[in-house]
């Protein structure tokens, strides 16, 4: 599985969103090895799963334009990352080797 990550512009961050995303991807890589990878979102590719990382709840338009994502997970506070990790782990458990 490839997780595409799209960050907001960072105009009003309430937490270290980049650090939280790096920690999440490190844990997922450790858990799933070669079956999991991530990259910055690109408008030129299609993705099964995208993660939108917002710095605050004001950033509402970032999901627009993500029509190349089959599923979108959104984080706008630190607590969201544990829920997202659980969701990705559950999806990965259903992936064939």
Strand order of the largest sheet: 2-1-3-4
Q: What does the overall shape look like? A: globular
Please give the CATH architecture: 3-Layer(aba) Sandwich
CATH domain topology: Rossmann fold
Helical stretch tally: 2
Q: State the total count of DSSP E strands.
A: 4
Q: Please bin the fraction of helical residues.
A: 25-40%
Task: Give an overview of the whole structure.
With 97 residues, the protein is an alpha/beta fold. The protein has a single domain (2-93), classed as Rossmann fold (3-Layer(aba) Sandwich). The chain has helices at 17-32, 80-93, and strands at 2-7, 37-40, 47-53, 69-75. A four-stranded parallel beta sheet has the order 2-1-3-4, with helices on one face. α1 runs parallel beside α2. The mean pLDDT is 89.
Could you give the topology of this structure?
Layout: E1 2-7, H1 17-32, E2 37-40, E3 47-53, E4 69-75, H2 80-93
Parallel strand pairs: 1-2, 1-3, 3-4
Helix pairs in contact: 1-2
């Amino acid at each position: 599985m490839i997780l595409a990550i799209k960050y907001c512009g960072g105009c009003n961050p309430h937490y270290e969103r980049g650090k939280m995303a790096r920690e999440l991807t490190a844990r997922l890589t450790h858990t799933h090895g070669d079956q999991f990878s991530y990259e910055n979102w690109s408008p030129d590719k299609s993705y099964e799963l995208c993660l939108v990382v917002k710095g605050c709840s004001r950033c509402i338009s970032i999901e627009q334009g993500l029509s190349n994502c089959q599923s979108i997970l959104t984080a706008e506070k630190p607590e969201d990352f544990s829920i997202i990790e659980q969701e990705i782990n559950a999806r990965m458990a259903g992936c064939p080797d």
